[in-house]
Amino acid sequence: MTIGHEVSVIPQPATGSKFKERVRIERELEILNAAREVFSERGFEKTSIDDIAERVGIGKGTVYLHFASKEEILVAIMQRANEQLVVRCRRLADAQEAMLAKLQVIMRELVNHRFTDERWMDVIASALPHFLGKKHHLGASHALRVLIAETLATAQRQGVVDPRIHPHLAATAMLTLVFLCPLVEDSHPSKKELLECATQLYFHGITTAVKV
Known about the structure:
CATH architecture: Orthogonal Bundle
Distance between the termini: 25 Å
Radius of gyration: 19 Å
CATH topology: Tetracycline Repressor, domain 2
Structural class: mainly alpha
Number of domains: 1
Strand content: under 5%
Shape: globular
CATH class: Mainly Alpha
């Protein structure tokens, strides 16, 4: 469950049978970028498919050719942003030798991403009721959860992380700490406060035995 940034065009061959596919991808990117703008300006609830179509300069029916609903559009924006975030997290983690340092740098990048666009976080917060408990929402962050879970599993094999911990549950817990908790509680912590609190909770627990 993370923040979306403007979707960049993915280069595709423009020859032969792939031409139509390139056109389709470019149209979808136009819709996603326009939707992100309108969602940020008006909020998720107040935005309609008509609003998105008008921003792109196409008919509503054309939007529906690509996306079944505005919920599906939001999931697509989030998924693409998460894929870009995975690339950054993997690059930063690969630069670290120690497994614990890899996990810590991933969390730091998640927090940085969380504070990139506060207006977009408001959009995500307003959309939460539409997605809680729905599998397609979890799918938006699948690649990110897999990266964290794989890093945790490797750390377990090296004896750095408690072997009793379920890697995929622990990966979801990290994402929840960074992205969901501040929204649900409406506490609006600063970046520094969120990073310190999430680090303490995730790596050391709630006791006073170990400090960050």
